[in-house]
Amino acid sequence: MRPTAFRSELEKLLADDVPHSDLTTEALGIGVLAGEMVFTARDPMVLAEAESAAALLDMSGCHVSLQVRSGDVLPQGSTILVAQGAATALHRGWKVAQTLIEAWSGVATATRAIVDAAKAASPHVVVACTRKNIPGTKSFAIRAVRAGGAVAHRLGLSETVLLFPEHRAFLPGEPLAETANRLRRAAPEKKLIIEATSVGDAIAAAEAGFDVIQTEKFSPPQVAKLIEELSASASRRPLIAAAGGITADNAAAYAHAGADILVTSSPYLARPRDVEVSIKLIAPSDVVRSV
Question: Which domains does the chain carry?
């Protein structure tokens, strides 16, 4: 059974698209006729939100057969799902289900491109996608980046300790080591992460005891220089998370430079992948009945 929160999200999507009734289908008088709808990958893609689309169509009154799973790499022409039901049910869920797969498969496909590029250079590097997704879409976004092989950088402000220069603006003159101790006392079970904007800042953060240094808009050579200096001087090297402008085009360079984590928001801006939808009339006796 799907979690209540998950079902509620899908119900809101349906209610937004069909707040009352499908006027066209009703006006034509075809609502009770039986049909079959097939979703096919028109673009190659890393599939995402197929299960959400199937659940939404099921909620609309269709019987759904899901042919593949989120995270699968689909060549062009692959069948994603087949849905059968009354015309009213098919048309009610059609566009929302299609759009879910198209939009989030775009995110998953872009994510996988970054992951593949990075791991070709360094098999142990981790790609982490930020919380800078479209407000209100977090659960969909997180599932999509996971389908693409990445992890969530931060699910929200309540989850992790990440010190920005914008925080330090309210602590004028406080030594960084004192700030680290303050954070460690307040959240002793959490790793301490800090954003650094220069190699010097990053070295100071390492000396202050931060666990992860997020290098904001460092070039790959700057990341390599930082790691070299830390390895030579620090007794314990913090993890290095390269952030700011990470894409499939430069992921390998950052991974090769030695970054442990690549932090990116770029998949959220990806072009949707195209899903073809075909609907045909079938005899009522041909409709698969769920048991």
Answer: 4-112+271-286 (3.90.1170.20), 113-269 (3.20.20.70)
Q: What is the pTM of this model?
A: 0.92
- From residue 241, give the alpha-carbon distance in Å to each of 55, 109, 226, 238, 264: 37, 22, 12, 9, 10
Q: Alpha-carbon distance 201 to 194, whole Å?
A: 10
CA distance 254 to 244: 11
- Compute the distance between CA of residue 177 and CA of residue 204 in angstroms, rounded to an integer: 9
Per-residue pLDDT reduced to its tens digit, 50-101: 999 999 999 999 999 999 999 999 999 999 999 999 999 999 999 999 999 9
Cα separation, 206 vs 85, whole angstroms: 61
pLDDT at 4: 61
What's the full length of the chain, in residues? 291
Report whether 73 contacts 20 (CB < 8 A): no
